[in-house]
Amino acid sequence: MTGIADLYLYLKRPYSRDRRQRLLAHFDPHHGSGRNNNSVVQRFVVLSWKRTGSNLLCGMLHLHPEICMHNELFNPIDIFTYYPGAMKVPIDDDNDSTTTTMTASWSVLTRDLFPVRFLEYIWNPDTVNKLILQEGGSVATTASTKAIGFKSFPEHWRDAVHNEHIWGEHILRDLRVKKIILHRRDELAVYVSMQRADQTGRYLTHKYPEDLKFTIDPAEFQAFLNNYRHTFQEKYQSPMAEYDSFWITYEELIDDEKRRIKLPELYRWLGVDATVPLRTLKETIRQSDPEEDLSNVIENYDELEFCFRHSDVSHFQEKRLGRTIQEQSTAKDDSGIQKDDTNDHDSLQTWTILLPICSRSSFTSSQPHLVHNNNENNVQEFPANRFIDLARSSQHNNTNGGNNNSLDPVVCWSMLQEFAESLSATCSPEQLQLTECIVGIDVDDELFQSSRQRIVELLPCSKVIFVDIQPQMYGHVCKIWSHLGSKANHNFIVLLGDDVKLLGKNWQAAVVKQFLEISKETSLPLGAACVALNDLAFPGFPTFPVLHRWHLNQFGSLLPRQFANQGGDPYLYELYSRFNAASFCAVATMKNGIGGDGDARYQKHNINWRGQILNMNLRKLKSALLPQEANGIVLDVVVPSYRTNNNDILTRITSLRSSIRMYVKFWIVIDNPREDHVVAVQRLADELNETQLNVDHGNYFVNVIHYSENRGASYARNTGFNYSTADWILFLDDDVVPDKHILDAYAGAIRRYPYAKVFVGKTELPEPTNTWTQMLKACNVGYFYNIAERMTHPSWGVTANLMVRGSRFNSTIQFKDIYPKTGGGEDIDFVYQYKEWYSSLGRLVTVGVPEAKAKHPWWNGGGTCYQQITGWAWGDSLCIMEWPKKTFLSCPNWIEHIAFIVTPMALYSAKPGVGLVAGATIAVVEHVIKAINYFPDSSSVVDEFQEKSDATTGTSSKGQSPMTVFLWKAWVALGAGSVLSSQEVTRVVAAVRRMSFYSVCRRVDWFDGQKERIRLDIQLSSLLYFGLNIGIAWASFSLLGNNSHRHDYKTNRVH
Q1: 420: Cβ contacts below 8 Å, ≥ 6 apart
Q2: How is residue 298 annotated by DSSP?
Q3: What percent of the chain has pLDDT over 70?
């Protein structure tokens, strides 16, 4: 930013004349010389926030004999001042000029109606000092008063009367008014003090009750933080801050040694006697112990501490020193689900095993059997609903007889016997006495229907119940499951199959204990949970979930009626995971022979249960569990992987863990068809997954997806995005190294910003390693990699480290395939889709999370990478056509001027040589200007590089000649400008090749309207450059063109 916009905004109407007069007043030789009384007295205001020590500071200023210090003059409730008599307006008696009577007073109404007059009245030393004398004259006299001021909070001008423009114009931007800015570093202490004061009504003279405790909502505290920081970082920033602003902290006021240094500095800055003894008002007392432990005051301190653990809040920064994930994991293991404090009696519970058996190996459904209204054969037809076609398509085609693709009877009985033996071997006799088995058999299954007694003899359960499966349910495993579940009589319910072999000893007791632990940890009712068995054929997938009768009582069935034969098991797991009540039972191992991730006995049909169905039933579950909240965090990490031989980085990514209970899966989408790369990544995933069930109860599983061709990063991200059923998706590139606390950082942000949809992490680029990387740093090409630290609500963020709301909430938001495979513009477009869909939230859609860090390497290993940089420009130029409302017009830049003005002029005038000279001159001047603009940045970059290089090598670069250092810095500045120029050229080439002349002179608003000054600065700068380029072109064609004419004329004369 060149500052042109600041100058324009400062001097523009309607206040330009007044502002110019104020500016010139500082160059008046009589200013402050005592020429008149008004020029002697210094105006000032204390800009602060409630509970930051403003009463302490104002009391000290009030007790200074040369300062007239008011209090909250613009408080919405009343006019608060140490001199109430000063609010009385003196009115002269026309009949007697020697007397003055007090017949009127300033009120809240008159103050708010005439704020400018009120300010002038307050700062008028003649009036104020005369009134002070009438109150006793003990504090200040007309001769001694040198400074007059008052205290102001942000809400004084915003909440009641919306006079904020008056505050900005007549206080903040008035250079005659000095600003004392008081803030408190411990932001949590400020908020706690505000809560205490609001609850007790004690703001000054009384201590707070020692037993006062309260709960702090993390989202409300974050909103306070944003307002608090915005106030001091932006709102209180004067245009001439170095001249008219004095910063002081609460911590400096309460420290005796620091106060003795800081207060005299303040007095000298105000132009008053700095030797006056420091005193405080007797009414000002410390209302709480500054050394108190706030964890004893805040009832939900642990929750609050986690949410802000990795933030830059000073209170929690101190708390997290020395904390490591390993220590937290140890504590978690000591108190979590691994701890076995239940007894055998608690483990013995009643069980229902749902066992559908079938002698067919598969169902054919190429010709769906449609059931008509005729009920001649008493066939039940499907109810009319929008899923009827899906239901019919998966119905068994029974036109060829009863047994379709029947298995060998010996195989059928062998599988059932193997299941029965595994059940008997893994359960205690006492537990089997409490277990019933509900067996579902197809009505036309001749093999099993005729052998019910044999089945009873095989199964070791205390009771066996048979249920007929009607033809309309064939192939509908989810419907069969719900149908059998409705017949259950016992507490714990599990769906198994005749192709299942149970392996874990006492698996039922282990599952019950896990239910008990979940209930204990979450305070949910016993049974409000889902525990999945450990299917060795499909590790990490909840193929066989166990439910409790509590679930049946709340929902009426095991599954919603919309399910056909796919998705029921993960749906149940996802449903309870939102309440931290879903887990795998590692010791309850088993193996599924048919189905799972492979072929099943039926044609698989999926429905979109991730969105409406899951949300609807989550609301029902939440209602049943009130007042418990669905505070479980379900977050998946999606990594598009093209780079080979980078398993070390993939290992770092897939080893990420959270210190709290989170449900996390990793999706590595391989976008490189090389077989060795696929094998290497799959081997890595298998190795990591081996330990997950025992360590994290099936959490943090790594899933690998690959296809046979390179389809680009956008396609790969969409693949993982759409496979995931999580509420949140964290995109990480396969070349970034994430901070080990990144999951905690994002989890804390989710709780602090419950309405946000996009979280932008901080992606850190390394320090320069050579001249090229110095150029990249000097031109700040990675500005948006670090945007999370610069903006609370970034306009967009790079997908190297970006977390968004899961696709289950809106599957239409996708990465578009129009952008380059290697990236460029797709991240802008993706975030803009979220902002458009959730437009009612405004800029709150996005949130910067600077504590969510990842390290990104230099592109091309630190070598020259113009191709990478121009690829971004080629992609982001598409955003002009995709998002025209998020663009703005400016004058032509240098390359547009050459391409669309100079070139046509040269062709039209048939003077290509003149056009070449004009274009070259414009290009040279452009790059000289850029080099000059970047020179300060390149100087600091080179100096830092030299210092670090000297420290590393133990040598000194001070022996280099000044000219050598200057040329080095100039070269870096010139290269930095060339980076920007390469992108500008690329965008023009892209516009021409696409025939998109709408894009010419149009720029993407990178800040999406949040930085109006930057946009205005670009437009005004482009106007100046355009004028310069017009001048160069005109001079070239005028001078060189005329010389050419004269040369032609002389040549003709000779001939």
Answers
A1: 458, 459, 460
A2: B
A3: 80
